[in-house]
Amino acid sequence: MALTADTSEWTKPSQGGTKPKGGIDWLEDRVKARKVEREIPTKEDAPGESTLDLLTRAWVALDEDRDRSQQTEIGPSGLGGCRRQTFFKLVGQSPINFVDGEPMDRQGALIGTAVHDHAEQAINKLKDENLFTEITLPGIPGLLADGHTDLYRKDQKKIVDWKTPKKKNLRFFPGEQYRWQGQVYGYLAIKAGYEVEWVEIIGIVKDGAFTDNVSHVERYDEAIAVKALDWLRQRQAEALNGEIPPADYSGRICSEYCSFYGKDLCLGKGK
């Protein structure tokens, strides 16, 4: 039965807690009550560190122990981002973006990592001789760190890269940055002896459903990969000369996702 403005067909729940059949005014009251419950916790936690804080601490520690988290060189996944952020990485600048004495919130990145790990496990369970996950691809000495492609499909001669965008950002998907990264993975794979004719970028929507997920497929194009690598060479030249390039982003994306955000280094585009 559809919910309409006419409440005559709806019955309010009894004071004894009988399961409600509906009621617009009752639903509105529950929404307000739940909002208050979220804002003012009604239960006290046990003494010591809360379980939520314990989980956050453990999750961050696990992520920091990953090889990719300890990598200081620029890899394929770092191509095409903010020029100023890349400069700070190349010169070895220490992070300054802290909140209450702790590093910036990385839950979005952690969810992305978890999705990649789960996708790898799922693909490996298929035991298909044409599917290869997490292939390490030698980088370019002095320029690019080793790459780790998410999936190589031998039967289709295709490189596949998982991304975890939010649903609201799909209108920008895949964008030049993701395309550069996929093409460079293809470039490195060919150098390593793999046959590559296609590049596919999969958007696994972390706040959506299976039906929201998207796929972008394009022909491998060495010219695009070379353009991306030239972009990194320009960043290296700037770092060598101490020329701080302009920032490419501003606002919330900087404060939430850039470890160099702050008044002492960078406040985003135009600042």
Which residues form runs of ≥5 with pLDDT under 50?
1-23
The arrangement of helices and strands along the chain is HHHHEEHEEEHEEHH
CATH class of the domain at 74-257: Alpha Beta
Strand order of the largest sheet: 3-4-5-6-7
Query: What global shape is seen?
Result: globular
Rg for CA atoms: 24 Å
Mind describing the biggest β-sheet? 5 strands, mixed
Distance between the termini: 54 Å
Can you describe what's shown?
- By secondary structure, the protein is α+β, with helices and mostly antiparallel strands.
- The protein has a domain of 184 residues: Lambda Exonuclease, Chain A (Alpha-Beta Complex).
- It contains eight helices and seven strands.
- The strands form two sheets. The chain has a five-stranded mixed sheet with strand order 3-4-5-6-7, with helices on both faces. A two-stranded antiparallel ribbon has the order 1-2.
- Helix 4 crosses helix 7 and helix 6 packs across helix 7.
- It is globular and about 55 Å long.
Quick rundown:
With 271 residues, the protein is α+β, with helices and mostly antiparallel strands.
Question: Which keywords apply here?
Answer:
globular; Lambda Exonuclease, Chain A; 5-stranded mixed β-sheet; alpha+beta; two-stranded antiparallel ribbon; 38% helix; 271 residues; 8 helices
Describe the SSE topology:
Elements: H1 24-39, H2 51-64, H3 67-70, H4 83-90, E1 98-99, E2 102-103, H5 107-125, E3 131-137, E4 147-153, E5 158-163, H6 175-191, E6 198-203, E7 214-219, H7 222-241, H8 252-257
Parallel strand pairs: 5-6
Antiparallel strand pairs: 1-2, 3-4, 4-5, 6-7
Helix pairs in contact: 4-7, 6-7
